[in-house]
Amino acid sequence: MTATAERLATGATSCAPAAAPRQVTFAAAFRFWLKLGFISFGGPAGQIAIMHRELVERRRWIGEQRFLHALNYCMLLPGPEAQQLAIYIGWLLHRVPGGLVAGALFVLPSVAILLVLSFVYAAFGHMPLVAALFAGVKPVVVAIVVEAVMRIGRRALRRGWHIAIAAAAFVAIYLLHVSFPLIVLGAAAAGLALGRPRRVRPDAPGTVGELATPGAVVAPAAASEPFVIGDEAPSPPHALPSRGRAFRTLAAGVILWLAPFALLAAARGRQDLLAQEYLFFTRAALVTFGGAYSVLAYVTQAAVESYGWITHAQAIDGLALAESTPGPLIMVLQFIGFMAGWNHPGAGPQATEAVLSAFVTTWTTFLPCFVFIFLGAPWIEVLRGHQGLAGALSGVTAAVVGIILNLALVFGAAVIVPRGLAGGVAWFPAAVAALAFAILHRFGPNVLWAVLAGALAGLARALLFG
Prior knowledge:
This protein is mostly helical. Helix content is 73%, strand content 0%.
């Protein structure tokens, strides 16, 4: 090629118009988050896997490393990490309105579905056929929790000190009845002291990404089109940290929490069930790290043993209902709130008090999630690529294994030896639990089908043997 031709070619290239960056319309994002709210089965691992497949591999709205960075931050927070990840990505794409829509639509379908199921359970759960369904579901829930202990333990207990933290957490909560927040703080401190911060790679075995999305984080899809927000792209202007914005976010969160509580306390008194639930579930939302199983261990310990709001059997049934509906498993707290209001109604009608309790529980459970993301995500965007808190996270995750083991023993005893060891083993739930565990362990945690199979087994037993 001659020099003149080279200059012409260069000039033609430089004058070519740059391709406009890809954008996601708010309407398209709204449709996706609404769809996700109805298909998000499988617990946090399944939900995060769906988001990774849809947002990173298929739609290419966000880059692989940005997805993992957001996920790492959400795993450090108390509360449901999958919903917080949805809020984070929605906020990154469309500012605060995008985060509000993503987070709300992630839970609203399950709020409505579980509210209906809770009423059916409370009003008709004593009927023989309904009771038979739950008799078959309870042992499946035990198997699900045991399988979760093994699944999380395989990924979390990678070093000797991880095992030591898990064992200490189990002894602390099961034998010594140590407060859950103290266990989490101690585990985080131990992780910071013993763990070595390292950069997380999505293909490294045992990383945070693998722990949160087993089998979901794979090689990026072929670059058929650019990411909307790629790994190397600068953060959008609205994602840059601002002290003024942080102050306004914190003030809005405090007002949104304080105003309903002030109205409740003024109308019904500080000792009313709704006011007590408001404070308790706020505390649970702020201190329960490690997902739904760990928060259920903490809430069950308090709601059953300290407050007497529900029974162990009702807590197991609530987890079964939450496992069989879309949305985060932490929705089991809405069921617990509903049953607390149903079991201990105030001056109003029983159903009304139960629904109010469910709404109080849901509000206090999910409000902090939005505040955590809107407040902290801009600062986390600045720290992309830095994994200094990996040690603390691994310590907390190890403690979660011990906490979930405690939950498995408590639930297992309530279902398989309901009259204590002296009363012998209940063979039907023991057999169903063993079979469900074998299926889950062999074919993977497809919990929806396992719960449905357990319900059918309970129904068949009632019809055949009475």
